[in-house]
Amino acid sequence: xxxxxxxxxxxxxxxxxxxxxxxxxxxxxxxxxxxxxxxxxxxxxxxxxxxxxxxxxxxxxxxxxxxxxxxxxxxxxxxxxxxxxxxxxxxxxxxxxxxxxxxxxxxxxxxxxxxxxxxxxxxxxxxxxxxxxxxxxxxxxxxxxxxxxxxxxxxxxxxxxxxxxxxxxxxxxxxxxxxxxxxxxxxxxxxxxxxxxxxxxxxxxxxxxxxxxxxxxxxxxxxxxxxxxxxxxxxxxxxxxxxxxxxxxxxxxxxxxxxxxxxxxxxxxxxxxxxxxxxxxxxxxxx
Length: 287
What we know:
By secondary structure, the chain is of the alpha+beta class. It folds into 3 domains: 2-33 and 102-187, no CATH class; 36-98, no CATH class; 194-285. The chain has helices at residues 15-50, 55-63, 74-84, 97-101, 125-131, 172-187, 199-221, 227-231, 234-250, 264-285; strands at residues 2-8, 11-14, 108-113, 120-123, 137-144, 152-158, 162-169, 254-257. A 6-stranded antiparallel β-sheet has the order 1-7-6-5-3-4. A two-stranded parallel sheet has the order 2-8. Strand 3 (108-113) and strand 4 form a beta hairpin.
């Protein structure tokens, strides 16, 4: 079995963008089911062939599902054998029970929303999109797999961590292909300003801003009034508050918005740049 994990540090997209991710996951689900069915059919055919000479066992298998006759159609035989193999006493020796019981579940979407008081709801993509409210959505996961199967896929969207893609399975070609296709699609919604959320950017910028504000306040009200504030590291605490607001409210790692809409983070950044430009222009007029 092979497992691959890829992390996308930041994803901002519309409902339509999310639907494209779900559509790709649905295609990968169908491929996984087909691959597993092909493998199961191959093992089933081998098991039947290996025990073809054991007519007594074959007749028991047939008798448990359909009335044995000379003109039983091949399709009926396959259906009858498939159902009968669920009974251990009739299963031909050498048949892989574990593989036969491995059934990949349907694709599901789990949504963590403010509507559920911190909880979540899980359903099919069609049912989820009927009621999905992007404003209330905190986290979201698209997944399929099986408790008894190595084949698994998960695309986990989190406001604190971004997107984590996990794909595992015995089919290496499918696993690698799924990772590459999902990564390529998800990176299309990674904004160019995602680096601004990193700690190496946000900490220096906002600690410096906190110091500037402290100095400006000192010049305005007198440094004596801020002596205790700076002594106890109040300016550093102010910087931490700025960083927390910046990373959790202004630039969350996962943001979903409505069809035809735009990112709130992009709007806030543009507004901030415009405000700085406006203030700079005003200051320039009075120089």
